[in-house]
Design brief:
- With 298 residues, the chain is an alpha+beta fold.
- The model has no long low-confidence stretch (mean pLDDT 93).
- The protein is built from eight helices and 18 strands.
- The chain starts with a strand and ends with a helix.
- It folds into two domains: 190 residues, 4-Layer Sandwich (Double-stranded beta-helix), CATH 3.60.130; 92 residues, no CATH class.
- It is globular, with a radius of gyration of 19 Å.
- It binds fe (ii) ion (FE2).
- The site of fe (ii) ion has 3 residues, from loops.
Length: 298
């Protein structure tokens, strides 16, 4: 166990994640306790994922917490008012619950999801992500986080050389993270999307990160469809087989914050009749910074 500034931290695994003990987040927010909040920011840089258990937070307080770390990202879903809490601008509900009117409360899904980065199909993917568990099945599904710094660092040198400077087109795919992954879109549709660097730099730590595409069929700029598939599937296999991850089944009142740049995440599915409700908030990120030749030489 270690003490970072005013926090007591208990690492959750050798490679990623920590529990923050003895913190009343509602109190820290209400008092605007900048010593605690700044220590949380530092701890996220070090551990990438932080879990705070047994928290009592109102929607406004979760938003207030997020605002301390930067501008909030609008997660509004088209045609689904139910995914939001009335009067609350940014907090979104992730849930498979069916309401009395038959509409899903959140996205309606209990499907498993494969490793991904939130907002990868947007020009500016999310920064920090916040999950606050409000209702979970008796045996809750696990969420997994992977240290994407270590995924890059542990690539063979020739692979690092090969992927340096490459960009991938992150095409949009409805429910694109759900596993098993759905069939490919036509080639011309996979050519549309933001072109993100395959290796990005973290904006504050300056460390390189493998920005892993969440589908094998994404296209690498300047490569054929077959070459792209071969390279991306190899990288995704390298990540999937790595030991640099931690998993936790979120319990009610658990708050988890992670850095969506340096962590990939995925989840297990669960029985659709069992209800799960997670409040979801995110900060705006920044356009991914390429790990250019200049930055590699530095
Ligand atoms: Fe996600």
């Amino acid at each position: 166990m270690g003490r970072a500034s005013s926090l007591t931290l208990q690492p959750a695994s050798p490679h990623i994640g920590a529990d923050v003990l003895d913190i009343d987040m509602a109190e820290a927010i209400e008092k605007n306790d900048t010593a605690v909040l700044d220590a949380i920011r530092n701890a996220i840089e070090e551990h990438i994922v932080l879990r705070f258990r047994k928290q009592t937070l109102k929607p406004e307080q979760v938003e207030q917490l997020g605002r301390y770390f930067g501008p909030l990202l609008s997660l509004k879903r088209k045609n689904n008012d139910a995914a939001h809490i009335e009067g609350i601008e940014y907090l979104k509900i992730i849930s498979n619950v069916q309401q009395n009117d038959g509409r899903p409360l959140g996205d309606g899904s209990s499907a498993p999801q494969d490793w991904h980065t939130d907002g990868a199909a947007k020009p500016i993917p999310a920064g920090y992500t916040y999950f606050y568990a409000r209702k979970v099945p008796a045996v809750p599904p696990k969420t997994y986080w992977m240290n994407a710094y270590l995924i890059y660092e542990n690539l063979p040198a020739e692979m690092k050389e090969k992927i340096a400077g490459l960009r991938v087109i992150h095409h949009e795919y409805p429910a694109g993270n759900e596993f098993p992954l759905s069939p490919s879109k036509p080639l011309e549709e996979r050519l549309v999307g933001p072109q993100h660097p395959l290796v990005r730099l973290h904006p504050t730590t300056g460390r390189p990160i493998l920005f892993l595409p969440h589908r094998d069929d994404m296209l690498v700029v300047g490569m054929s469809e077959d070459e792209s598939f071969s390279l991306i599937s190899q990288l995704r296999r390298h990540a999937a087989e790595s030991p640099y991850w931690w998993s936790a089944a979120m319990e009610v009142d658990d708050l988890v914050i992670w850095d969506n740049r340096s962590a990939l995440h995925k989840r297990d599915g669960w029985e659709q009749s069992l209800e799960r409700i997670i409040w979801h908030l995110a900060n705006e990120g920044e356009p991914p910074i390429p790990h250019s030749a200049a930055s590699r030489a530095a």
